[in-house]
Design brief:
The structure is a homotetramer of 355-residue chains.
Chain A: E1 4-5, E2 10-15, E3 21-27, H1 37-47, E4 64-68, E5 70-71, E6 74-75, E7 80-85, H2 95-99, H3 107-113, H4 131-147, E8 151-159, E9 162-163, H5 173-179, H6 191-204, E10 211-218, H7 232-241, E11 246-251, H8 261-264, E12 268-271, E13 274-277, E14 285-286, E15 289-290, E16 295-301, E17 310-315, E18 320-325, H9 335-354
Antiparallel strand pairs in A: 1-2, 2-3, 3-7, 4-7, 5-6, 8-9, 8-10, 10-16, 11-16, 12-13, 14-15, 17-18
EC number (chains A, B, C, D): 4.2.3.5
Cofactor (chains A, B, C, D): FMNH2
Family (chains A, B, C, D): Belongs to the chorismate synthase family.
């Protein structure tokens, strides 16, 4: 099913972009955990729109209310429901979008699936805005993981053709913390300027660009995961593919399929009592199970489908070919805002795997 | 959980490489379906080892017995259990493998997870041999799908650095049928010779290579799938990542994250009454739901971790660094045999999605 | 997991008795369904407290807000979230309840499970109040079922030792509709007066009584359900046991285990083209699958654990035996209010089974 | 789905009464557990048919082969598949059963569901014989539970109208062990003679009788289970209703719905450091969560539907009313053989709940 996820941590999301509110129910949280609300707000701010010209001008403060599951800021063990009101919705005319299908969007598949009854305003339930409650849930998951010593961080590995470096084999905890407290995290400080130029260029051409986000999860103990249907890769990938615009997921080195076996096989060694590998081309997972090295993965994000250029499309009412020009507020590149969403999904996936 | 999968079609796999047998239980099959045993055997032959020097010399005919769920070759609607006996097991000494962890393999994670009790002979339950019952189940799924007009085919898109072409936008049904009846399917007839040379080169160097398999699923109707947690991508990816050695999955064009929005947005048009797109960079899926175009995806496969070269590793008994030389029968490249496994997982995933 | 349920219909409940609100997320609803809000309100009124002296004096209008999943009163196909604010909460002192465990309540098990962090005010997440959103969801399910011709009704079969008649073999549709529009449905008009006296007697003694609710689901087609783990009984029973205070569930005739085989075997016959049975001791289900006769089942409800008498118990802080007198507003018998909850669970269970 | 069950322990059953074999796949078992094969055989013997005139004369030794998941008698952590060959199948003529539906059996619902393709020989997949692999799985579960101190035992509480006593509040471990090592366990030694007479009387009249089995699970710690959808009752009941012929399940005292609140509320007290209740009318569960007292429940079993008397029924081929006389080997009462099945389901359910 589509709105629910999880075995040990249960997620249920709801809401439409222009409805009264969006939100999430999170079951399976431990009781007695003091939530760090400031940190939740910080992670949500990283995702929030309207902070600069690289993102949609729609301003949403994404202020949330926790409706259940906490008392005096401490979890009770009951399902936690958090809601975010939709305050900045434009009540413009959406009648064109009901019949002219935007290319690259959910419009046409949703029109068929829901027989035209889906809410198309602002993308409805398909809106990237639904990732706000995911980040909220992910922020809570990260706090639980941190108590187990598990740290998560990600960076923009690529925007259009501009590339950042990859994570090194040994990933410093401080680096991950630092990345997760940046609005535009890159490993190479200089590369973001070029990325910004690339995004601006796309924006000026009424176009958009995509990219790659690389994420690392450090200190997951060895022996977590399963062979086959619930391998770590199998467990995390559906969450990552749930993020709108994600079209690819790879674990370890992106180029591992082009390596020779003697390169791809990460050699084990003891560093004191600790088992490590000299390289980490397998991204901390072999046979579907963690080996104790950082879990590393990349997600590929397509360019935002909302662009202002005139595009060829169909009118499903008249059954004719036509053109569409999508107006409104769009991100020329959602990669920067998606970094914290990827981290959040990673946190939720690992927390669920830990059982 | 790891051994079970599915909502509408239920899979449960079992067995170890050197145990008495491996097998699968398939629940949720429709009653009254006449199974085409020859086709099942053909698909299993495509995966079976020992057919030439590109694959492990271990010969297993992979003859299966259907223990339940059919009568007179017709499904009864009860769970179908199929078993494959392990006939060609070498009772060699596996004591070294219990302590010296093979790099790139499941050995070390499994050692930690199962406290050393896992069966290491031939990879035990982690063996690629467990994909034989998957192919059997997938072959049945394909027969059900074919009655709905859905056709699946795949080709070796890349081996090491040797590349085949990509699927065209319009994929001919005959092409898919033809591909799925080849032992070494490529779109470009000439490219396999080079791939073969590459594999042979690796074999001669006691090394191995990986590659990419591209798969297409044609004629899935528009409107199948869901937003978020059960998007088509989210539904198929765990199955694909269950295949041993798969480290990446991408839907649509592999380079979509490097495109501009105006390129990535597949323009809709009516061809008669039928809705089509001029390009298919989104691989038949937008917003997590099918748009009626072929579902196209790629899986990246790492080089076989079993290589005969001496490798650095650890001894978990003595807690010391050591070396290992993995003897025995290995595939220098499992990509050719994995093609039908990818097709099978695709079939099972789509059948389950159709509900 | 505890907060989520369902394969085709997805439920996720949240909220605590004295928190800001309670609610539910319902996934998997068909798009394009016009909701009959008056009927939803009627069903919720049947469950609402404070309507007479048989129920707790706490008055809650149970007014709900639909936060997502509908537009202009029509379902969009996206998850529907409905919320009910908690308006009438008494901010009395709950410190005694944190340490003195009420017998028959969730207090002690919850104290152990949640390490004392659970919200004890008004029963917290364990409150019977959480059945309000269940009734809301069930009301929607009933509207969908009604379009398929399926009708649900229930009656108070027993309160304490006062018994109503059982459903006849042929259950008239009008009877079920009529029952579901009564506040105190019984088959025998006279019996409710005696039941009322029994409840009043318990109330005057600061005591409580329980009883049995019998429910019928008419016109479920034959062939629905499965052998073994997803039998109709297996599918419905967890929902019914989710209702606070339900301690038993039986399908068909309550006394079937005391019959002889020749009595218990419901004889088939053709009535025109329609297959019927002369008796319905199996409650419309044999082999876990429906046979086309009405599904009939009973749920046994224990007396409300909240009574004002002094009771023996423990203090978990001082680790000593002690006494407790539970003050506050209680139902001397929740059976009348639980009828619509049972019907709602039945509706949700059958809708999910129909797939 | 019907063939699979479980969150932490995964079950998948397969097989038909007259097919080559029946079996089960059990996932999620811990690695490194030495299986006590003698005990497994003992429990299976308790269920096996043909041991005396109270059960069907079909003799099946129910010898099993473990196909995967163990090595040298010790679990490997991989899915355990166990198979039981069907050796004693009568190849008699089943053509009448294909068209004349046996009352009280799965025949008619299955005929509709599977469009006549289901295997009707010996009940096919619906056969009570499928409980043999359940007992095997349950026996393994019991060994795991025993290491945690959890002990399970059951007795025949009622056969037709002959009643045994109920479990006392304090249930001695020795009593449970003793019960589970009897073929015909009752609390009152004398009562079985009367039960036997009752069964014999039914057999002589070509009839059958049912009854009630009461089961206790001692030493499950307090705090296990959940509110609502995954209450202990909700978790166990689907397993119990999966047992063919079970039509009712009640937890705690069967008569709790007829008690007053002051009786039904089990008073807590400290016995030393241990929390106990003076009565156990709630069967060790309040609010869906264990309170540390023994979990006690009853299952009601209908009389065996297979009786040799002439019965009224329908012919689904000719669409006419007709009569049927069911020949063959039947149990006049399956209660004695079902005791160990109930214990097994209880063991599997609790093991899964413990996570």
């Amino acid at each position: 099913m589509s709105a629910n996820w999880g075995n040990n941590i249960e997620l249920s999301i709801f809401g439409e972009s222009h409805g009264p509110a969006i939100g999430i129910v999170i079951g399976g949280l431990p009781a007695g955990m003091k939530l760090d609300m400031d940190e939740i707000r910080w992670f949500m701010k990283r995702r929030a729109p309207g902070q600069n010209q690289m993102s949609t001008p729609r301003k949403e403060k994404d202020e949330f209310q926790i409706v259940s599951g906490i008392r005096d800021g401490v979890t009770t063990g009951a399902p936690l429901c958090a809601m975010i009101e939709n305050t900045n919705t434009h009540s413009k005319d959406y009648s064109e979008l009901k019949v002219n299908m935007r290319p690259g969007h959910s419009d046409y598949p949703a029109y068929i699936k829901y027989h035209g009854y889906n809410d198309v305003r602002g993308g409805g339930h398909f809106s990237g805005r639904l990732t706000a409650p995911i980040v909220l849930a992910g922020s809570i998951a990260r706090q639980i993981l941190l108590e187990k010593g598990i740290i998560i961080g990600a960076h923009m590995k690529q925007i259009h053709h501009i590339q950042d470096c990859s994570f090194p084999v040994d990933i410093d905890d401080e680096l991950l913390k630092q990345l997760s407290h940046q609005m535009y995290p890159t490993l190479d400080d200089q590369v973001f300027i070029k990325m910004q130029e690339e995004i601006e260029k796309a924006r000026m051409s009424q176009d958009s660009v995509g990219g790659i986000i690389e994420c690392a999860i450090a200190h997951v103990p060895a022996g977590i995961g399963n062979p086959f249907f619930d391998s770590v890769e199998s467990h995390l990938s559906p969450l990552l593919f749930s993020i709108p615009a994600v079209k690819s997921v790879s674990f370890g080195s992106e180029s591992i399929h082009q390596m020779y076996g003697h390169e791809a096989n990460d050699a084990y060694y003891y560093q004191g009592d600790q088992v490590k590998t000299k390289t980490n081309h397998n991204g901390g997972i072999t046979g579907g199970i963690t080996n104790g090295m950082p879990i590393v993965f990349q997600v590929g994000i397509k360019p935002t489908p909302s662009i202002s250029q005139i595009q060829e499309t169909i009118n499903v009412q008249t059954h004719t070919n036509t053109q569409i020009q999508v107006k409104g507020r769009h991100d020329p590149c959602i990669v920067p805002r998606a970094v914290v969403v990827v981290e959040s999904m990673a946190a939720l996936g690992v927390l669920d795997l830990l059982g």
